[in-house]
Amino acid sequence: MTLPAYSGLADWFEYLNEDCDYEKWSQYLHERLKEAGILRGRGLDIGCGSGYFTRFFRKQGYEMTGIDVSAEMLSKAQSLGGGVQYVQEDVRRLKIAGKADFAVAVNDCFNYVPPQDISAAFCRVAAALRKGGVFLFDVSSEYKLREIVGNNVFCEDRDKAAFMWFNRLSEDRVEMDVTIFADRGDGLFVRSDERHVQYIHAAETLVSELKKAGFECLKTEGAFGEPGDRTRVNFIAKRL
């Protein structure tokens, strides 16, 4: 049976993504927040997954709320603690009490939002932020999804878990079938299969939609702010 995205993957997501350098990524986000003048206050981690970035910002002294659509991911996040509030919510229908000082949406969160729903999602984020609040998010680039990920297969075998990742490129999306074999603790492995769909968004379109939703896009840049990176687009925006 094929499960929804991040059902079987939830318990193993951070383990299988250790090579993405979470520490460097966290420091990059924190530096961009400080550059924008957000030194304290309340933050939202949209698409928080198992909560790595939520926990990081909580340790820096921010009051954090982690938000994700996946119950399995939130369950894993809760089990890891960190003094964080977690809420199950879809960004397209996001509602919170009060206003936050910043929001982050890290590691492809908005690639999971269909193009026709980007406007609604950005408007919901804008409504959750105070004026002058900062919105940091990223997407996997058109180049990455079309030239690297699309119509490709990736496999990795680690001590506690292994995965196979089969991708099919279509006009505006990549459909992904992921199979995970996870150690259940007694020497045997449990298999799970899940389906992901990531949508391809042009950076120029996202900047335009940000403006319509009441944001000023201050900067776009590659992964970790590296000018030569073509795989990821980071957006730093301010709520007007």
Could you walk me through the main structural features you see in this protein, from its secondary elements to its overall organization?
The chain has 240 residues and is α/β, with parallel strands linked by helices. It has 2 domains: 2-140 and 201-239, Vaccinia Virus protein VP39 (Rossmann fold), CATH 3.40.50.150; 144-198, Single Sheet (N-terminal domain of TfIIb), CATH 2.20.25.110. It contains 7 helices and 12 strands. It has helices at 13-16, 22-35, 52-59, 71-79, 118-128, 142-149, 203-212; strands at 2-3, 42-46, 63-68, 85-88, 100-105, 129-140, 153-157, 161-169, 173-183, 189-199, 215-221, 232-239. The strands form 2 sheets. A 7-stranded mixed beta sheet has the order 4-3-2-5-6-12-11, with helices on both faces. Strands 1-10-9-8-7 form a 5-stranded mixed beta sheet. The relative contact order is 0.16.
Question: What are the salient characteristics of this protein?
Answer:
240 residues; alpha/beta; Rossmann fold; N-terminal domain of TfIIb; 2 domains; seven-stranded mixed β-sheet; five-stranded mixed β-sheet; 36% strand
Mean pLDDT, all residues: 95
What is the topology, as strand order, of the major beta sheet?
4-3-2-5-6-12-11
Low-confidence stretches: none
User: Any guess at the CATH architecture of the largest domain?
Assistant: 3-Layer(aba) Sandwich
Helices and strands: which structural class? alpha/beta
Q: Strand-residue fraction?
A: 35-45%
**Terminal-residue CA separation:** 46 Å
CATH superfamily of the largest domain: Vaccinia Virus protein VP39
**How much helix, percentage-wise, in residues?**
25-40%
Rg measurement, Å: 17 Å
Domain tally: 2
**What pattern of helices and strands is seen along the backbone?**
EHHEHEHEEHEHEEEEHEE
Find the CATH topology of the largest domain.
Answer: Rossmann fold
